[in-house]
Design brief:
The structure holds two protein chains of two kinds. By secondary structure, chain A is α+β, with helices and mostly antiparallel strands. Chain B has four helices and no strands. The chains are: A alpha+beta, B mainly alpha. The interface between A and B is medium-sized, with 34 and 18 residues.
């Protein structure tokens, strides 16, 4: 009986690893190749006047495979057709926290994504992009060099003492805001979801997915915003103990950067 | 027996009585000097009476003057109220207004990646 149970657990573990590996292979190929055609893109968060539009390629999703494997359980779903092409659905469920969950449809022949879907923790659709029509061949994607960001976590921790990053999220990029705006923008990622952390001289009005706190800075009063597809309570909890900011260290990352892991 | 010697006091007593009678008569008859003194007395009395009445009327109409520390406290409180009121009125212009939520969403939109 124990052997059967152990074999079962081993099989399940192997199956999960295989699903994650299969998805990682598809995402790796998608860095160089992409399908073209007619894509319907719907965005319900952040809110916009016209949520749905049509384009000729899937929008970019900044997947970070290492973080994704750490923070999400990848499960292979049913075989479904997207724009008439056989595909496999992969479901990404966060292992902890209240992050959004994702579904990706991977073309079974080309092994590249044909559709993405992001849902809030309560199941509400946040974003969706899916091919309606697909051209006959893949198109080459220009390779983008991704400079590594080393030490950003430590710098952020020193710059914003008391900041409690939501479960699974880590800083992956930082850049200075436009000269007229002032401040710094830091991108947090859990592998697929992103949060925007902003240090600014002005506050922002609270809204769905937007939390802010007033802090003391070296040059006077500053404000820290946290924006993203998380419950408001999670956003506020992250900022609850932030009292001051030291932007001197963040200045090292002033140039626009975007690092993958 | 009398206690006075008649020979010694008879003529002297008559002279003194006459002088005293004249003196008393002069004293009883009012003259101009007496009238002036009476007028001065009455005028002063009326003046003192009027001053006393005026003081009492003022005391009723106006309360007793406040101690100096009360006046200072009152002035300080009024000045503080004026400063607070001024700050309350001017603060909206001194502190920039909060940005709309769209400013936060725009940053998040940039972080999402191209095409969304």
């Amino acid at each position: 009986m124990r052997r059967v149970l152990l074999l079962g657990l081993l099989f399940v573990g192997t199956a999960q690893a295989t699903d994650a590996d299969d998805l990682a292979a598809a995402l790796k190929k998608a860095r160089q190749w992409t399908a073209r055609g007619q894509v319907e893109v719907s965005v319900f968060f952040p809110p916009r006047t016209t949520p749905t539009r049509t384009t000729n390629a899937l929008p970019a999703v900044p997947f970070r495979p290492a973080l994704l494997a750490r923070n999400f359980t990848v499960t292979r779903g049913d075989s479904e057709a997207v724009a008439g092409r056989p595909s496999t659905r992969f479901d990404l469920t966060p292992k902890q926290g209240a992050a959004a969950r994702w579904s990706l449809w991977i073309d079974r022949e080309w092994n590249v994504p044909l559709a993405f879907e992001e849902r809030m923790p309560d199941g509400t659709l946040a974003r969706r992009a899916a091919f309606l029509k697909v051209n006959g061949a893949l198109a080459r994607v220009p390779v983008q060099a991704v400079p590594p960001v080393v030490g950003l976590s430590a710098v952020l921790k020193a710059a914003l003492p008391g900041l409690r990053l939501p479960a699974g999220f880590t800083p992956v990029a930082a850049k200075a805001r436009a000269e007229g705006q002032g401040g710094t923008e830091i991108t947090l990622s859990d592998g697929v979801n992103v949060l925007a952390l902003i240090v600014a001289p002005r506050n922002v009005r609270p809204a769905v997915g937007v939390a802010s706190v007033r802090v003391a800075g070296s040059g006077g009063v500053r404000f820290v915003w946290l924006v993203g597809n998380l419950p408001d309570a999670a956003l506020k909890t992250a900022l609850a103990n932030v009292r001051q900011v030291d932007e001197a260290g963040l200045g090292t990352f002033a140039a626009p950067v975007d690092a993958g892991r | 027996m009398s206690q006075f010697e008649p020979d010694m006091i008879g003529p002297e007593r008559n002279a003194s009585d006459a002088e005293l009678d004249a003196l008393f008569a002069a004293a009883r008859a009012p003259n101009e000097t007496d009238a002036g003194a009476a007028e001065r007395f009455l005028a002063g009395h009326r003046a003192r009476l009027a001053q006393t009445q005026a003081t009492q009327v003022q005391a009723i109409a106006a309360p007793a003057p406040r101690p100096l520390w009360v006046n200072r406290t009152l002035v300080t409180a009024l000045a503080s109220a004026a400063v607070i009121a001024g700050i309350s009125v001017l603060r909206p212009t001194l502190m920039p207004a909060d940005l709309p939520a769209s400013a936060a969403y725009a940053v998040y939109q940039d972080a999402l990646g191209e095409g969304w």
